[in-house]
User: Fold this.
Amino acid sequence: MTDLIRRLASTSLTARVAFGIAFLLIFGGVIVSIAAFAYGREAARSAYDRLLLGAATGIASSITVQDDRPVIELPVSAFELLALAPDDRIGYRIIGPEGVTLTGYDEITLPTGRRDFREGFFDGSFFGEPARFAVVSRRFAERTLNGTIKVVVGQTLRARNDMAYDITRKALYVLAASGLAMVLLSVVVVRSVLQPLERIAGGLSARDPHDLTPLDTSVPRETAVMINALNGFMARLDRQMNSMRHLISDTAHQLRTPVAALRAQADLFTDEPELSRKEKIVERIQTRTASLGRLLDQLLSQALVIHRGDSARREKVDLRDIALDVFEEGDHAVLNPEFDVILDIGEDPVEVLADVQSLKEALKNLLNNALKYGRSPVRVGASLQGGRASIWVEDAGGGPVDGVLAELGSRFNKGALSRQSSSGLGLAIAHSVALSYDGELRLEKTGGARFRAALVFAAVPEGRA
Assistant:
């Protein structure tokens, strides 16, 4: 059964449609055959019952009374009617008022031996062969003949069955012809429907492997759903590839200088004879090593953000929880104990659709920048305003000048405040997180000579699951 399902799954759509229509036609053909045979039998019964009734009525009309006795002259017209079924055997019986057979076959008996059966039809047998009989009664009220004479006329069922089979056969011929036409039409329709897919497949096969531009969407509406999904997938793949290229470029760009500096300091240490100068070289090596460690942390954070931007499932996140988690981890208290860090969150939820881990990495980078370049106290919080949810870090410093502020957040930008000791990736990571979840990074000066870096997203409407 499993192998059959696999084979059916690998067949073409044309074969599937043709097989489905053929199955429906076979199943419908069985039902139509039964219905057509039932209709044919009923039509044949009705037609030949009329012939029997006409013959019996003609015979009953020809009965006369002469010399106080019934005289029967069988009319030729009655047997001409019955001759319309030439292969059937015909039988008749005329029963007098006393139940005595006046003429005909005594073997023909009324149903269940009922002598009071006057009019109608019944099924029986005629010399061992199934037959159908009609009974017509004629009442006589003569001085010497008072009673009812019954005329029973019957014939076998060969013509009736032949007629039923003929009706059924013709119905199946029509069904087979229409079914064949439907199968051929379905093949033509399916092939015409699949032509856009063939064009799409041809276009994809002829494309350069690095070409991830959107496909042409001038296709039928049903196919456009697949094209839009494929374009969306290629767009995500293009973003991933661009992000990986940027990450590799960032890594090569950022590691080249500190590694070269460490190598130079190590060479100086080897060639330096004075102990005091060696101690200064070791101190510089330690400083460079610490800076390189921070750089590697930021590069790993950027790689994590790039990976989770398109792969992680978006879920409803309360930005207050993100701010609370980063605050309670307490890294700032260890690295910068001289700074006062204050948590500022309200009672109302601030919910967005994003990834928890990416938001934490972005907020940590914003907090580290504030601790490194800002002034105490530093406030970390989340707020909701006008349908826009934001998570932010604010310090007491005035921030950079407007020219530098416009360039912050771009790759490799260190800014005037960095003193050549930072990679410039902190804000770039936050900016990447904002773009990944349809938000933005805002760097702005607030009232009271304070500087705020905020990630702003569209808030989840109330009541949405």
Notes: Residues 314-465 form a domain with the Heat Shock Protein 90 fold (CATH 3.30.565.10). The radius of gyration is 50 Å.
